[in-house]
Amino acid sequence: MATIWKGTLSFGLVTVPVELKRAIRDDERIHFHMLHDKDMAPIRYERVCTADGAEVPWDDVVKGYEYRKGKYVVVTNEEFKTAALSASSTVAVREFVPASSIDARYFETPYFLIPGKGGEMAYAVMREAIKKTDTVGLGTIVIHQREHVAGLKAVGNALVLELMRFADELVDESDYTFPSTKDARAPELHMAQQLIDGLKAEFHPEQYRDQYHANLMKIIKAKMKGTEAKLTEPESAPAPPRLPPPGEGLTRAPGGGTAATPPPGRPPATAAHRKRPSRRRTARSA
Predict the structure, then answer these.
(1) How many domains does the chain have?
(2) Selection from 95, 112, 110, 125 nearest residue 15 by Cα
(3) Does 106 map to a domain?
């Protein structure tokens, strides 16, 4: 894959020559062109002025910021260049913070950092140190004249640099209303925890597939061959376990399902404690 950025990663006295390469595949998404249905010719979009309806050549197009409905501030190409940051060939890690302290919403786009020639040992030392301390290194990087917050992680044998969002890009939790912790009563919480324990598993991402993408590709390839695609229905998810009435928990039953169990503090019911059905009374003879 192409190199996105090339430079030096540094913190303290440690410097590592690195290259930035993609860590996700976004080129495998399906892209469609807009066509004229009568002759299959691609459709071309024109720049049309909303005032007079005339087509506007590129040389007459400027960029404007709408600060009020219908009111704009025009920013020239020279002003864009003034605002742009100079390219830097160094990512300086300013600090290391606990990995668990970063809200996952901050992370946006991951990239692999590939060590340059002669930097393999320093690269391995930095990676292992980040693993053992369970931290994320924070710094900044300039890509295409724009500054980004950079998070440095250790993932397997690789160092991953993840572009991060700025704090003002996140929606604050206080903008919405969420249930209080007081709404989670102990019996229901116990039941939910047992249900989660019964569904715990190792993470295997390959078992989750984009079925919509797969179906579209089957349709496209079949039409290229002049045939009809045979689509398979995705397997239905297993039925969720039956939830008992409030106040009862869940345990794994011998047959693999779930069975109700009492929450902590309440003794399990036994045959002797269960209420026997009352006998139907018969009318007394006169």
Answers:
(1) 1
(2) 125
(3) yes
